[in-house]
Specification:
The chain is 48% helix and 14% strand. A hairpin with a 2-residue loop joins strand 11 and strand 12. The chain is of the alpha+beta class. The protein is elongated and about 105 Å long. The strands form 6 sheets. Strands 3-2-8-7 form a 4-stranded mixed β-sheet.
């Protein structure tokens, strides 16, 4: 269960924050410095340098500040000594039109809380803050100094150091928090917590989850929330419909807030979905990074992995989130042993292994962004297709890629002449096709040329590559501006019976020129041509298939690519051989 795994993560990694439930860490960009007499001194910016992607940017430094014991979307609920700037200083440059009275009410409540706490604790810093709010001219000076502050920015009071760090202030707020939150919990009643199984008080509402973005409100979103009558059952109100103890509600929210931070290595945003991932026990292995970056050394280690030797029982969790207004949407959730995930990743990369036409060797492992670009021109396919790729990588063959992925990959390939030979495109098609063939109980397609493969579609793909090689070799030193594949690839891969008669006529013209200039290459290529033509007629029962279904189009792509890679490998091997006489040479060239 997702929330149970999140609560366990908070218990293990965020125990200090759970123990101090009345306080939370937030980015605080400003300290308002105040003298003992209550005079405004200056504003101290609090910024740190953080790395986001490839950039280093300035970001507000975190500070432990009071946590609100109640939702603050209605009513006046100030926090002690550190709060939204509209509470701390009232109306100012940050106030939108029509909100002046709202900001003023919150400011008065904030100042009143400072005076109450100062009177109760006799703390010197709080008393200095109380004097500050009695001197309206000094408050105005602070407003002027912070006129560039953005709405929603947090400002903290400082009297020879942040006031929130003083022991008396911490103690006062703990007592206040416990009293208010206890009263709220008592009104919510009791029940059995869905996370812990304990029977006891139930949290009436849960804290907001911050930092998601992706369509969510800046103030935060809710994972568990019941605010409409239609969402409620048997007269239960708010979160009594999904009972969770207050401490467990706090735990899962803390975990999500921590995992969703962009600077801690647990989050990747892909196609408008925030994927967060973690393990039950600490681990250096990052499955999402392996899929995303496809580091060759990591992939090679996976390909050499024997799960029977390294079962790795550690549990892996991954969830995908987006948002709609105030609600968090769960796009994806998986829980599996890390050993099984490693085995699935091994199969993911092995299933996409393919010969690289340009190097005539197995291509480097594909990165996730390359696969997304193979499905969409902008590299931003629909979310369901991105999710399908990630599920296939993490969950393995149990989540086979469907025909929507294959259709998109084939369509992009047909219109991308300059990128048609990119191995990650072909590897993805191979994986999609083999997923479907396994489900039908058919033999899967290999990573390199298979002369024994007699499927008509595969042979048609090989045939197009042979005609293209004949054209290259007949051109000699002349540059080929448009190959026969450039002209006929789309037609040949869908309706071979229409394309190949035209290709045969062009092929004979190129062979006649080749016979005159490179007889050895002509003999070899013509022999290949006749062998494949004969196999097509024998396998199809006719000269060429009239049309190819999606499986056939996938086979065609692999046949063409395999044959091209084989020709390049032969050309490279020939260059390494001693020179032969022109009449007997078996040389043929390929565009490399």
């Amino acid at each position: 269960m997702l929330v149970q795994a999140l609560a366990e993560y908070a218990d293990r990694e965020l125990g200090d924050q759970l123990a101090e439930e009345a306080w939370e860490e937030k980015p605080v960009p400003y300290l308002i410095e105040i003298s003992d007499s209550g005079a405004f001194l200056n504003v101290t910016p609090r910024l740190v340098q953080v790395v986001r992607g490839k950039k280093t940017v300035s970001s507000p430094a975190p500070l432990l500040v009071p946590r609100s014991p109640v939702p603050r979307n209605a009513g006046l609920y100030p926090l002690l000594a550190a709060d939204d700037i509209k509470y701390v200083l009232g109306p100012g440059a940050w106030t939108t039109k029509g909100q002046e009275e709202n900001n003023l009410e919150r400011h008065r409540a904030f100042a009143a809380l400072i005076r109450t706490a100062a009177s109760a604790t006799k703390d010197e810093a709080l008393e200095a803050c109380s004097r500050f709010y009695d001197r309206l001219d000094q408050v105005e000076l602070a407003r002027v100094a912070l006129q560039d502050a953005k709405p929603g920015a947090i400002a903290a009071l400082s009297a020879d150091g942040p006031v929130v760090q003083r022991a008396a202030v911490r103690s006062y707020w703990r007592t206040h928090y416990a009293a208010v939150s206890g009263t709220r919990a008592a009104k919510a009643g009791s029940g059995q917590c869905l996370i812990s199984g304990r029977i006891g008080p139930i949290a009436p509402t849960h804290e907001k989850i911050k930092g998601l973005g992706l369509g969510g409100q800046a103030a935060g979103v809710s994972l568990m929330s019941f605010d409409k009558e239609a969402f409620q059952s048997y007269g239960w109100e708010q979160n009594a419909n999904s009972p969770v103890a207050p401490d467990r509600a706090m735990a899962y929210v803390l975990a999500l807030n921590h995992l969703l931070r962009r600077d801690n290595g647990h989050r990747r945003d892909v196609a408008g979905v925030a994927f967060v991932f973690w393990t039950r026990e600490a681990s250096d292995f990052d499955p999402m990074s392996v899929v995303d970056q496809a580091d060759e050394s990591q992939v090679n280690a996976l390909l050499g992995l024997d799960p029977r030797v390294d079962p790795d029982p550690n549990q892996f969790y991954m969830a995908g989130f987006s948002a709609n207004g105030a609600r968090m949407l769960i796009r994806y959730w998986v829980s599996d042993s890390l050993g099984h995930v490693k085995a699935n990743l091994k199969e993911w990369f092995a299933g996409q292994r393919i010969m690289d036409v340009y190097s005539a060797a197995i291509a480097t492992p594909p990165k996730l962004w390359q696969l997304l670009a193979a499905l969409d021109r902008e590299g931003k396919p629909p979310k369901d297709r991105t999710l399908a790729l990630l599920r296939r990588a993490i969950e393995g063959p149990a989540q086979p890629l469907g025909y929507r992925i294959l259709t998109a990959a084939l369509a992009r390939l047909r219109v991308s002449k300059e990128n048609r030979l990119e191995p990650h495109r072909i590897g993805l098609i191979r994986l999609c096709l083999n997923d479907q063939l396994r489900m039908k109980g058919e033999l899967t397609m290999p990573e390199a040329l298979d002369p024994r493969e007699q499927h008509p579609a595969y042979l048609c793909g090989r045939l197009l590559a042979i005609y293209e090689s004949i054209q290259y070799n007949s051109a000699g030193e002349t540059k080929v501006n448009q190959t026969v594949a450039d002209r006929y690839y789309s037609l040949a891969s869908t309706r071979p019976a229409l394309a190949f008669p035209k290709l045969a006529d062009l092929g004979q013209k190129h062979l006649r020129k080749l016979r005159r200039d490179k007889r050895g290459a002509m003999v070899r290529l013509e022999q290949q041509l006749q062998d494949v033509l004969g196999s097509i007629e024998q396998a199809a029962g006719c000269r060429f298939p009239a049309s190819l279904d999606l499986d056939g189009q996938g086979r065609f792509v692999l046949g063409y690519h395999h044959q091209r890679a084989d020709h390049v490998a032969a050309a490279k091997a020939h260059k390494q051989q001693p020179a032969q006489s022109p009449d007997n040479a078996t040389e043929f060239q390929e565009e490399e």
